[in-house]
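If you are new to this repository, start here. Below is one unmodified record pulled from the training split, so you can see the exact layout before writing a loader.
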Amino acid sequence: MSNQTKHQRADSDFAFEAVPQKARKGFWPMFFIMLGFTFFSASMSVGAQLGNGLDLTGFILAILLGGVILGAYTGVLGYIGSESGISLDLLEQTSFGSKGSYIASAMISFTQIGWFGVGIAMFANPAAEVLGINPMILAIIAGICMTSSAYFGIKGMEIVSYVSVPLIAVLGVYSMVTASAAGGGLQAIFAKSAGGISLFTGIGMVVGSFVSGGTATPNFTRFAKRNKTAIITTVIAFFIGNTLMFAFGAVGGAFTGKDDIFYVMMAQGLTVPALIVLGANIWTTADNGLYTTGLGLSNITKFRKKPMVLLSGVLGTLCSFWLYNNFVGWLSFLNATLPPVGAIIMFDFFTRRNKYLPEHAMEVDEVVNWGAVIGIIGGALVGNFVPWGIASINAMVVACLCYWAYSKIAKK
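And here is the target side for that same chain:
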């Protein structure tokens, strides 16, 4: 550890302080929040690729095995968030240093505001076709709604999830079952698979589909009343949420040639339910991403979270179509770069657990923990450029090894 003077965390915003026990939430609020977080239309495109590249057995195995890895990653981060009661960015300050955390916060904020903008365009473009409205008008309306729920914090996201999650689940499952029956059943649908991907590749796609978003899990589970609640709701939500999104995408790809349940429902004559599912599906994830962006920018700028949420919402909305057309490839690059952040937090938490106790939650020992910074760089390089294995797993392993090796050398 560095011998530099301890730096007190300076931020008066409630979101950047340890969450008091009286403000914490029980099982069902946390479950709906986390389940809504995983309901995202972009995951359906992964499901369509899995459905086109695997048979039914391979599809199920990829979802189960990939889900175990993703659930373990988010479950551990969920536990850390609940145990410490602090946000991802304050966890980063302990792991990366008061200034070193800016790197991790910037990466995550950049990614989440990108996905927020992409999500708005994913809603506005098809909805505009159906309604005959200028897509920019719909983008502005969607941006205002999604920014509003993020602005009001965990309570706003909880309300949106309570309304949206049942609608998405019921309408989506009904549509998928109906489409499967019309297509001769799941076995017949998957029999059309081109068989272009291996099971190992499919597992990697499942993990990679939401591992970057899953890194932000502590931002939400810090509100869980018990550690057990944080772990169970996170793991179950990621299993159910991702499984439904993959299934919707796979059936949609086979039934209509497109990868969104929206188009399946449109083909079934369910125009209004299709619009509701599309909007709700994107909203439940976009506001979580914007909330995470606000926290990250607040860590960097030291401005309060709410103004940063508003600023991010305006930028994401105005740039939504540009982001959709130009940014998806870059976001894929960042998706393989973010897992090292979560891995280093986990490694540091279990090796220096006392630093994360509530009584020490507002103190930082270092300005920059260079082992953590080197870990991010090394993990990101391996995750993006090593062609074998599962990119996110490779990145996390290398990040932890770099961090561990640096800490050993620094002690000599």
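Two things worth knowing about this chain: The chain is about 75% helix and 0% strand. The longest strand covers residues 7-8.
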